[in-house]
C-alpha cells in the first residue's frame, strides 16, 4: 500500500500540483494532472498526424514545424493559433490601417512607392473576395507585417544620406524592396492558383500546395529582417533592437503548424475520411470510396461544388490531371493570365486614387466641429442632413418613414404650395447659374413627379442594401456618395424611383434575345467545336440567367411611367456611361475568374445595380465567341473561361439571394412574398430553389431583337485558333514506303523503328518512328515522323571508348520538336532520345537506348521507356515483332511484307477491304482509349471492363500501319469524339448512360416536371419501361417519339415537346386522309429528299417540326440525316450551297426559338414537297406511325400497372385515414369549443345574476343609511329651530 511519501514523490515527478490534504486529495490532484497531460499528449499527437501528410512533399518545413511543436507544446500552438485567427477576423481593418500608413510614408519617400503599390494590389485580392481562405489570409497578413516595418521610415529625414560605409539607406534597401516586390507577386500568383483549384483537389493534393504557400512565410520573415537590419544600420538603433526583432520573428508560429490549426471542421472531417480509407491514391483508385467522399462533400459544400455533382470517373480524371501537374508548371501556364489580372487591379487602384469622389455637399470643417451636436451631423448631403435633423432621428430610421420624409422635403422645397411642377423641357429652357454647378437640385425639378408614394418601394431598395427595413447613416451616405458627379440627389432618387426598372427591363429583353440567338448559333458550330458549344450552353447557370430575366419580364407588373414617354432620355447618359465603364473593365480583365475580379469590374454599390448590364456585355461577348466557333477551331480554354465568368456571376447572385432571404426571415417576413412583391429579379430564381418552378419551363420568347450586329473579330479570342482543315501534312512524307535503306557505312541517313512504353519486351508502343539524320562535327540535325506528325531534331554525337563495349562506336543524344501539331495534343511535346549507335562488322546497324518526355512547362525530362532504330525498310519495320526473332519469326515477317506488297501492286479488293476494316476498328479503339484515359475532356464514359481489350486491339492494328495512318486515324478518332452530340445532363432511362447522337423523347409520357420525362438513346428506343412514384410513368414502344440530333436546352424543351405533339397530329391526319381518299401518288406527300430517293411517304415515317408545311422523311433519308450530323455543318443534308453565316438566321423560322412562325405557316403543295424550304440535320423530327390499336397488355405491363395502382390505392388509403383522423380531431375540438362556450355562457349568466342581486342589496342598505341620516338632520334642525323660536 503506497504511503504519503510515495504520493509526494509522484507529485514531485508530475509537478505543478497544489498541496492537498491526505492521500485521497493528492491522488485526485495527480489524476487531474495526468488527465490534463494525456489531453495535451493527444492534442500533440493530432498535430503530428496532421503534419504527416506534408512529410513527403515538404520534409524541411515539416522538420521546422515539429521542432516548433516540441519547443512550444500543443497547448501553446493552439493558443497562438486562436490568437492569429482572431487577428485574421480583423484583416480588412488592419490592412486599411497599414496601407494608410505606408501611403503617407511613400508620399515622403517615393522610392518605396512601387513596393507599396504591389502590396496594395496583393491585399486587394482578399479585400474583394467573397469567401476568404484563412490560410491565404494568414500568408497575406505576414506579407503586411513584412512591409509594415517600412512605416519606421517616417522618422528618417534623408534616406539618400551616405553613411561612413559609403552607402545610403535608399541604396541599401533598393535591392531588398525589389526582392520583396518579386516575392509578393510570386506569392499572390501561387495563392490565386491554389484558390482556383477545386475544393476536392485542395483536400487530396493540399500537402504540395500548402507546403509551397508555407514556404513564403519564411521568405517574408527573412525580408522583414533585412528591412530591420537596413533601418537599424542607418538610424543606429543598436544591435539589441535588431536581436529583439529577430528573436520575436523566430518565436512566431510555424506557417505549416498554423495551416494545420486553421483547418476548418469540415476539412478535418473530410481529411480524416480520406486517411481512414487509405489516403488520396486509394480514393482516386476506388470509385466506391470516391463516391463516398463525393456524397460527404455534397452535404458539406452544397450543390454548387462541381466535383460533388460530376460523374465519378470524369471527376477522378479531372483530379488526376490536376494532381499530376507540377506546381511550377501550373504557375507558368497561368502566369500570363495572372499577370494581366494583377496589373489590371494595380491600374484600377491607381485610377481610383486620382478619381475625385463626391464625399459631401457640406463643409467638412463644419461637420467635424459639430460632430458632438447629434447623429445628423454625420450626414454628408445637405438635404438629407436637414431631414435627419428636423426629424430628430438617431443612428438609423425605419426605411419607409425615411423615404416618406425625403419625399415631403423635396415636395415642400420645390413643388409645394400649389406650385406646378416644372417639366424637363422647362428646366432646359430656363437660364441656369453657372456657379450653381451641373448638379444643382433646382435644375432637376422635373424629377419630383417621379418621387411618389407608388414608387416608395423602388427608392427603398436603393437605400436599404441589406433589406433590413432600416436605413443607417452609413447607408444614406453611401447612396449619396455613389451617385454620378453630374447628378443631384433629387435626380438620383428619380432614377431609382422610375428609371432603374426601365433599365432592368430593357437589359432583360436584350439578354433574352441573346439567349435565343445563342441557341440558334450553336447549330452552326464546326464539328470540332460542337462538344464545347453544347457543354457551354448546357450549364446550369444558363437556367439561372433565364430565371432572372423572367422574373423581371413576367413578374414586375408595375408600370407607372405612362405619363412620361421620354423617361429613358432622362437617364440615357448615365446608363450609356455605366455600360462603357463596365466594357472597359471587362476588356481590361478579360475573364471574371473569381469574386474579387467581379467586384472590381462592377465597382462600388450593391450587386443589383449593374448586374444586368454586366450580364448583357458578358453574354454578348460569348455570343460572338459562338459565332466565331462556326468559322474557326476554338481553343478549349476560351470556352472554359467563358463558363468561369458566368459561374462566378451566378455564385455572387446566389450569395446575394441567400443574404436577402436570411434578412427577411430574421424580420419574420415571408421571403417568397417579399421577392415576388419587390425584388422581382430574384422571384423566379427563388421559386426554383424551392422546387416550385414547374411553370418556369413554359418559355415563350418575349424578345425578338436581332443581336448580331457587326461580324465578330478574333480579338476576343485569348488563345490559339485556326481554320478547320484535314491535316494533310500527316502525309507529307520525307521517305517513301518502299525507299531503300541508307548506306550502313555512315551514321547519317534513314533510321526506322519504334519507341516503347517501359521495357521493349512489353511491346507497348505508339507505332512506327522514322528519322533522317545528318551527323557532322559532333552535331546531329534532321527530321522525322511519329504518331503526332512531322518533327525536327537537334542534338550531339560523341565518340565512345571501344574498351567498354567494342560494338558501340558512338553515343548520341537529340531532342525532337513537333513542326505540325495534331489537335489532340494541347501543347508541343519535346522528346529526348539518348542512346548508343551499335556496329556489326564495321557497319552501323542499330541505335537503341532510352527516350524521355519533357515535363510540361519545366525543363525536366521524365524517362518513359526504350527505343530501337535500325536500317530496315519502313515496310519491314512495321511487321517486325519485338525482341529477338528466330528463323520462323523471320520467315513469317517476310511473308507478311511480300504479301502486302503484292496485294498493293495488284490493287486487289481484299487489300483495300482490310485497310477499311483496320481504319474503322482502330478509330473506334482510339475513341475508347481516349475516353478511358481522359473522360473529363470528352464528357462521357465507357464500361471499364472493355478498356483492356480495346487497348490491345489498338496496339495490334497500329503495329501494321504506317506512321501517317496512325497519326491521321488518331486525329479522326479525336474529331469524332468532339463532333458527336452528347446530351449533357440527360440520362437514358434504359441504359443509364448519356445519349450520344440522337436523343429520343416520349411524347405520351407527361410527368409533372417536364425534365423528368422518358429519354432514350438509339439502342434503347424500343424499350418497355415502368417507373413508380413520383414519376409514375409507363412507357411502351408504341408511344409517339420525338427525335433530336442537337442538344435541347431546358428553356426550349417544353415548347419543343408541345409543338411536336401538334405537328404530329397534323402529319398523321394528312397521311390518313391521303390513304382514306386514295389520292393519286403524284399528289401525295413526298419525302423531303424526293429528288434523290423519289419516293412518296407512308406511315411509318418521320416529320420535321421545324420546316414550314408538311415536311416528311422516309427512314432511309432520316438515316442520312444522322450521317450528316458529323459532317460539315455549313451544308444542308441535301448538299445545298454553303450558307452565308452572317445571314444564317434568314433560313430559320422567325420568332423565338424557331416555332412561332411555324404556327401560322401555310401548307401549300410546294411546301409539302419541300421545294420552298431547306431542311438541316439539326431539325427536330417526330415519328409518324399508325394510331396505336388497343392490344392486350403483357404480364410485365399488367404487373407494373397493378403495382402502380396498389401504390396509388395505398397512398389514397393513407391520405383518407389521415384525413379522417384530422376530421375527428377537428370535430373533437369543435365539440370542446361548444362545451366551453356553453359553460362560459352559464358562468356569465350566473355571475351576472349574483352580482346584480348583491348590488341591489347594497343599494337598499345604502338607501336606508341615507334615509336615516336625513331623518337625523331633520330632527337636529327642528331642535335648533325650537331653541331659536
From TrEMBL:
<feature type="region of interest" description="Disordered">
    <location>
        <begin position="1128"/>
        <end position="1170"/>
    </location>
</feature>
<keyword id="KW-0479">Metal-binding</keyword>
<keyword id="KW-0175">Coiled coil</keyword>
<feature type="region of interest" description="Disordered">
    <location>
        <begin position="421"/>
        <end position="440"/>
    </location>
</feature>
<dbReference type="InterPro" id="IPR043145">
    <property type="entry name" value="Znf_ZZ_sf"/>
</dbReference>
<keyword id="KW-0863">Zinc-finger</keyword>
<feature type="coiled-coil region">
    <location>
        <begin position="1202"/>
        <end position="1236"/>
    </location>
</feature>
<dbReference type="GO" id="GO:0008270">
    <property type="term" value="F:zinc ion binding"/>
</dbReference>
<keyword id="KW-0862">Zinc</keyword>
<protein>
    <recommendedName>
        <fullName>EF-hand domain-containing protein</fullName>
    </recommendedName>
</protein>
<feature type="compositionally biased region" description="Low complexity">
    <location>
        <begin position="428"/>
        <end position="440"/>
    </location>
</feature>
<feature type="compositionally biased region" description="Basic and acidic residues">
    <location>
        <begin position="1128"/>
        <end position="1141"/>
    </location>
</feature>
